[in-house]
Write a structure and sequence with these properties.
Helix 2 packs parallel to helix 5, helix 6 packs antiparallel against helix 7 and helix 7 packs antiparallel against helix 8. It is built from eight helices and 17 strands. The two termini are 20 Å apart.
Length: 434
């Protein structure tokens, strides 16, 4: 009975097409398992990179410097005992000009087969603070506590600070201390120094900072300029502002920004509460590759159905031309070979560049399928034809993976051409009942 069924399937072109469709759907099961494995390996990589970041230093966002001046509020509040107490509030002042220049030195760290991009930023920060002006708020002079004024500079991860930070405040040299004090309403961690806020001051300090992946800045100057260089050749600029000028070569990159206070959503001074819009204006860069090999492998598995379906269809068309028929089990073996391509791509991609892994996996998969087809149909010509068809399909998928923005266009044109070729080859197959 099973042999009779197979014989009927073999003689009916329509049933053979249905069988090929069912085999293609069944092969989606191992393909889905491989896709889940890609996700699992990607999550394992992210966990490993997070651990490396914990040992080194995390993503860094720099806020400041900000001049903070306490003052006694004219408002009174009643405490638990019924007494009226005078409150202390803080005024925040931003610099008229802020200039940040520096070099970012990347470093690749490995843990097992995984790698991450760490960096050390060597920054020089300078600018000018005007005299702290309370006149706009109608605050009495004797309420201002000038002797408690301090300069605050926010740093996301304090573990990244590599050297003592000395502040040059006009003609004075002051050492920063750890903590943001009352400026912690702006950001949790950072450094501070007691300063004179009753007149205009030029300032500068040098900061050597370790970080992981991302380095962001908040443009607190009325005019903020940032100039950075690095030997890293694939930066990703991000945040609220993109560079005004940038140069990217194989030797590295340089980028510069100029941001005005008019470009931001927060003012140059405020009091009584923290500005909630500071973080929204953050800008900077990431040294992390925009697409890792796990992402590319995951994208390639989405074309698995297309690869398997078109390959089995090509075998079907070859059979119609030469008058031979393969066993359904042989179709399954060819499909499994194509599924193993994605597993090879995943495993090889963890030890070499994605493009090399793709080429090597393609050669192994195409070679095995071509050898099997040539042996199955007892024809070297059929083996070479199989090799050519698969090479076209793998090249099409590779182009779609490389051309992210134009992947849909390339894929649509490629599918149209393949459909046109299929229709041309099947133009004389009219009777599907025999």
């Amino acid at each position: 009975m099973p042999n009779d069924l197979l014989e009927r399937v073999g003689k009916s072109i329509g049933l053979r097409l249905v069988a090929i469709g069912l085999i293609t759907l069944i092969l989606m099961i191992p393909l889905a398992i491989i896709a889940d494995l890609v996700n699992e390996r990607s999550e394992s990589r992210e966990e490993t990179l997070a651990k490396i970041g914990q040992d080194w230093s995390g993503k860094q966002t720099l806020l400041g410097p900000v001049l903070v001046v306490p003052f006694s509020s004219s408002e009174f509040v009643r405490n638990a005992t019924g007494e009226l107490l005078k409150t202390t509030q803080h005024a925040f002042f931003l610099p008229d000009s802020l200039s940040i220049t520096g070099e970012i030195e990347p470093e690749i760290r490995y843990r097992g087969i995984y790698q991450t991009i760490l960096y050390t930023a060597d920054l020089t920060i300078s600018g000018v603070f005007p005299e702290a002006d309370f006149s706009r708020w109608s605050i009495e002079d004797d309420a201002i506590r000038w002797q408690e004024a301090f300069l605050a500079f926010g740093i996301t991860d304090m573990r990244g600070v590599k050297e003592e930070v000395l502040l040059h405040w006009s003609d004075s040299s002051l050492a920063f201390s750890s903590g943001m004090m009352e400026a912690s309403v702006l950001t949790d961690a950072g450094i501070n120094a007691q300063v004179d806020a009753q007149q205009s001051h030029e300032f500068s300090f040098h900061l050597k900072l370790d970080g992981n992946d991302e380095l962001m800045f908040i443009p607190v100057g009325k005019i903020t300029t940032l100039d950075v260089t690095s030997m890293w050749d694939s930066p990703s600029f991000r945040g609220a502002f993109l560079p005004d000028q940038r140069t990217i070569t194989e030797e590295g990159f340089s980028a510069s920004w100029q941001i005005l206070d008019l470009n931001r959503a927060f003012s140059q001074s405020w009091h009584g509460r923290a500005e909630e819009l500071l973080q929204e204006s953050a800008f900077g860069l990431s040294l992390y590759p925009p697409i890792d090999q796990y992402h590319k492998t995951q994208r390639s598995t989405r074309y698995g159905f297309l690869l398997i379906g078109l390959t089995l269809l090509a075998f079907f068309l070859i059979e119609l031309r030469i008058g031979l028929r393969a066993h359904p089990f042989q179709y399954v073996l060819v499909g499994l070979d194509l599924c193993l391509f994605f597993l090879l791509l995943l495993s090889l991609g963890e030890h070499m560049a994605f493009n090399y892994a793709y080429i090597l996996s393609s050669i192994l998969t195409i070679g095995l399928a071509a050898f099997y087809a040539g042996s199955m149909y007892r024809s070297l010509k059929i083996g070479l034809l199989t090799s050519g068809v698969l090479s076209i399909l793998y090249t099409l998928i590779f182009m779609m993976l490389q051309l992210q923005d134009d992947a849909l266009l390339v894929g649509s044109i490629g599918l149209f051409l393949l459909l046109t070729l299929t229709m041309y080859l099947t133009r004389n197959f009219v009777d599907f009942s025999t």
